[in-house]
């Protein structure tokens, strides 16, 4: 009996986790951890303003290692919808994501690349769009707010549901699919909703700058409908209420 328990424990300890990463996306895909068909690669640079080449190289080397060790798995990689924003699509972060997409297409047999827009979720990452605004507004820290800019925000739970639906079909490999809200939000509207929720005025200065991601979500429209995801006018407000009521930042 002792031998059996020891053997069973060793098997459990040696189960290789099929979700790489520990951030917001990785946690959302935790159900895939013990599967043997997909490898969820959700590890990478979490700050889109990062310019540290070493950070990008670490993700690249880890990705190459995973590709070599799991040739039989269907790789799921998370890229960014910032490639559709002409203001930021030449930044080191976006260029790195595009390089990783190309690497996967060249080296792996079966894959899905999900280009994700700005995620909202339970995360201490200060670099997410909502967390940045919330932290600055609550602390009274001054920040610049672009007068002519918009951001596309989607609940991580909805993003997971859409990706999960696609993966469960498991019949359309080697594609790049945009996972995003059907609409963008003016950044002034985002800030206003946060100010209204916390009943606190932000300390910001409007500056003239433009940035608008143009994201084609036609491929997921039928899935969004099937999942009853409603990107209505209250969607942003619901997200803020969902993730910031406890204010655990």
Characterise the protein shown here:
The protein has nine helices and ten strands. The strands form three sheets. The protein has a five-stranded parallel β-sheet, with helices on both faces. A three-stranded mixed β-sheet has the order 9-6-10. The model is unreliable at 1-15 (pLDDT under 50). It is of the alpha/beta class and 249 residues long. It is globular and about 55 Å long. Strand 1, helix 2 (24-28) and strand 2 (38-41) form a beta-alpha-beta unit. Helix 5 crosses helix 7. It has helices at residues 2-13, 24-28, 53-69, 92-107, 129-139, 156-169, 187-198, 221-226, 235-244; strands at 19-20, 38-41, 74-80, 111-116, 118-120, 143-151, 153-155, 175-179, 185-186, 204-211. 41% of the residues lie in helices and 20% in strands.
Q: H/E order of the elements?
A: HEHEHEHEEHEEHEEHEHH
What's the mean pLDDT score? 90
**From the alpha-carbon coordinates, what is the Rg to the nearest angstrom?**
20 Å
Amount of beta strand = 15-25%
Total of DSSP H or I helical runs spanning 4+ residues: 9
- How far apart the termini lie comes to 47 Å
Major sheet details: 5 strands, parallel
- The helix/strand class is alpha/beta
What is the approximate shape? globular
Unreliable segments of 5+ consecutive residues: 1-15
